Amino acid sequence: MPSDEDAQQASHKYLKVRDYLVQLTTDELGVGDPIPSERALTQRFGVSRMTIRHAIDSLVSEGLLEKIQGRGTFVSAPRMDFEVRLSTFGEQMHRLGLTASTTVLESGAVAAPAEVASVLGISPGSQVHHLRRQRHADGKPMAVEEAWIPVKLAPALFDDGPPASLYEALRLHGHDPRWGEETLAADSPTDEERHLLDMGGRGAVLRATRRTHADSGAVMFSRACFRGDRYQVWVPLAPPQTPVTPSGATATTTTSKEDS
Amino acid sequence: MPSDEDAQQASHKYLKVRDYLVQLTTDELGVGDPIPSERALTQRFGVSRMTIRHAIDSLVSEGLLEKIQGRGTFVSAPRMDFEVRLSTFGEQMHRLGLTASTTVLESGAVAAPAEVASVLGISPGSQVHHLRRQRHADGKPMAVEEAWIPVKLAPALFDDGPPASLYEALRLHGHDPRWGEETLAADSPTDEERHLLDMGGRGAVLRATRRTHADSGAVMFSRACFRGDRYQVWVPLAPPQTPVTPSGATATTTTSKEDS
DNA sequence: CAGTGGTCTAGACCACCCT
DNA sequence: GGGTGGTCTAGACCACTGA
To answer: Among A13, A219, B145, B180, which residue has the fewest nearby CB atoms (within 10 Å)?
Structure first.
């Protein structure tokens, strides 16, 4: 029940140890440095070794620490984050040090077009909130974007006018965006897009089609069209193959036979 | 040392339990079904509860099981894989049910251009293997691709002519590709690209710039140029925010204040 | 209430690494 | 050898769930 902010300090012993280790590794230790041995921590905290191991294991699984049998436990290099995250245009621009601004082109409820209905898994023609916006970065047109959200999911979503952040609005209406899928493709702009994006005669656009999911299912379908010369996407690529049942203990470099 | 194939059967008790649970969940149980309780497994295997928990926890961390306090442990829905994986053109086409073919345009060792040297972290002008290929899917031109690999890393890489698969060749020379970074952008094709890709007057291309890493560091730089109308990239998007210190035990829906 | 997972103890022996 | 992590035991009490 304690709704405090930071000092949740944990009644659990392993959380105390954990907090201590997080402090230690971020404040005093550098990458590759060893943390105190499990038995040493046992002494320091006056708890059993299993408790210490619980704390350490949780940090290992998060990638903060790395164990090497016979040697010790070490601060690991910050691991690559192979996940591309759901982010809004504003967040993306902020990360690039640019200022985002938006011009609303259209806003309201419409009958769902066939593709939209299909992607969202709703009946064609059922009502969807629709928002079409022009996106700017530091004042320069960057993208034209269009989004559809079933009215049923959040009837009052647009009651105060089109929300500045659709993701935030969805969150407030109980449909926290959890994950998404995006398809990227290059294309030539339509005449209208070329005009809205202030592009010359030639030039390409990057089309991003996104389906956003909340716990309740697909909640939004959106299409964005970015100026090809002002926008690019960085994608980290994880290692190939997913050892179907890797364990984490066994795994002896299963030299799979490949033919490709 | 036992280089057997399947029956590694594990001398460790927790691995026996683990194997049993994997079998059980894949063969007999469905998503959402509960597995036997920890105490029941304790009886069945004649081991202590901590051992059972170790086995279960390893499967929970892999996403196969899900624990709910007070209720039980359940088979979880196969979790989304939010990672895009390193894959070759051949693999990508195979996945789409297409047949890949390749025409080598250029092959040999050259002095590293400035950008290539910079990206690979080598001295400008040092020797790099260079391969330029035209890629087809079901006989139709799909992409033009160019790759550079430091000669120093694998001097004999091209000794038998340009390898059919650069990734496979790197693997054979001790530089197993582990991860990569790719940047995607839309652009207009050059005249040569338009010709090689058999494109009409208009049309856009998707440029993919990739740096591939092995354990030894960056091993390859490559640029591919795909026909925009024949190629698209699917990217799964993971949930926002990375709780800096999430624990996995605490976390009571930390209602973070956001302003965007 | 009975049953489940969550935390915790105070030992034990093994496998591995380094010197 | 001496130190480190890896596995394992046989209990214990707590917190939560559901009937």
So the answer is: A13
Read off the CATH number of the domain in which A26 is found. 1.10.10.10
Q: How far is CA A90 from CA A86, A87, A143, in A?
A: 12, 8, 12
The residue that minimises its CA distance to C1' of C8 is: A51
Both tokens of B169, joined, read 């060749």
pLDDT tens sequence for chain B (260 residues): 333 333 344 678 999 999 999 999 989 999 899 999 999 999 999 999 999 999 999 999 888 999 999 999 999 987 767 778 889 999 999 989 999 999 999 999 999 999 999 999 999 999 999 999 999 999 999 999 999 999 999 999 999 999 999 999 999 998 989 889 999 999 999 999 999 999 987 899 999 999 999 888 899 999 999 999 999 999 999 877 544 443 333 322 222 222 22
Q: Which of B19, B52, B75 is the last residue of a domain?
A: B75
Co-location of A119 and A221 in the same domain: yes
Among B205, B238, B246, the residue with its CB nearest the CB of A186 is B205
Asked if B171 and B196 sit in the same domain, the reply is yes
Among B41, B75, B109, the domain boundary falls at B75
CA distances from B169 to B104, B157, B160, B176, B227 (A): 16, 7, 11, 9, 27
Does residue A197 share a domain with residue A110? yes
A260 vs chain B: nearest CA distance in angstroms? 8
